[in-house]
Fold this sequence. Notes:
Helix 9 (224-239) packs parallel to helix 10 (291-307). The protein has eleven helices and 13 strands. It has helices at residues 14-31, 43-46, 51-54, 62-69, 128-140, 154-162, 173-178, 212-218, 224-239, 291-307, 310-315, and strands at residues 6-10, 35-39, 75-79, 91-95, 104-108, 121-124, 145-148, 168-172, 187-188, 203-208, 248-257, 260-271, 278-286. The protein is 34% helix and 24% strand. Strands 2-1-3-10-4 form a five-stranded mixed beta sheet, with helices on both faces. Strands 7-6-8-5-9 form a five-stranded mixed beta sheet, sandwiched between helices. Strands 11-12-13 form a three-stranded antiparallel beta sheet. Strand 6, helix 5 (128-140) and strand 7 (145-148) form a beta-alpha-beta unit.
Amino acid sequence: xxxxxxxxxxxxxxxxxxxxxxxxxxxxxxxxxxxxxxxxxxxxxxxxxxxxxxxxxxxxxxxxxxxxxxxxxxxxxxxxxxxxxxxxxxxxxxxxxxxxxxxxxxxxxxxxxxxxxxxxxxxxxxxxxxxxxxxxxxxxxxxxxxxxxxxxxxxxxxxxxxxxxxxxxxxxxxxxxxxxxxxxxxxxxxxxxxxxxxxxxxxxxxxxxxxxxxxxxxxxxxxxxxxxxxxxxxxxxxxxxxxxxxxxxxxxxxxxxxxxxxxxxxxxxxxxxxxxxxxxxxxxxxxxxxxxxxxxxxxxxxxxxxxxxxxxxxxxxxx
Length: 319
């Protein structure tokens, strides 16, 4: 490869720029080539509608993919949870690096934990998935909360708490870690309380499917365990025929016996945003060694969830 700079397409947000900058450094190391960031504005960045209203699926991704297909950038970095589950034939998911912390976190006033919030506490989130699970947990444990739909970047969301408009907001641990604001977290939400979005905490590095040399170079950053886990999670999402703004949580994790990884467990949840009805199931199997095996794990759990009535719960979101 020549020393010509590689062009990395990224969204303009502080978080996107931070995570793309980290990937750029890693790509420079494996290729020996400089990497320049090309900032691209997506529909999701300029729309003021709530993600659940604009459909969520692909709103942060389409403009980046269009730039790739036009040859304006060489590769793009996405938050994996924003990617539609169907992969375009012209583009290759060249690498999924080691995943950051997949959990959701609370940033609350007075350094409060979730369970210590006062009665009637107003908790901001733009995610139907988070609303469904927080409200379900609150109902089950006698907590009185109100989930409030919000939009905006990390700074905007945290400011709602600092300004006293909300008692707390829910954010992704990975995002706060990547922009160096982990010290703002007042509580980590256990995945037993709130399952993250499929792929949360993972990044996707995408390039043209016909660029074999670049695919091979980017592939150096791929983590096979992360890829297997997020493939299973996204397969569940796809089999439920739900977009990335649907109230679906999923997490695949590795079960180890001492130092030896034995199995992969996949957990999934879907619920109504008021928390009155949820379907939550898990399945465990051998660690997938191929893409098809990871896909099969997700489909298997989705089929079980559908027999328990999952489709009806998601249908309410589409109204």
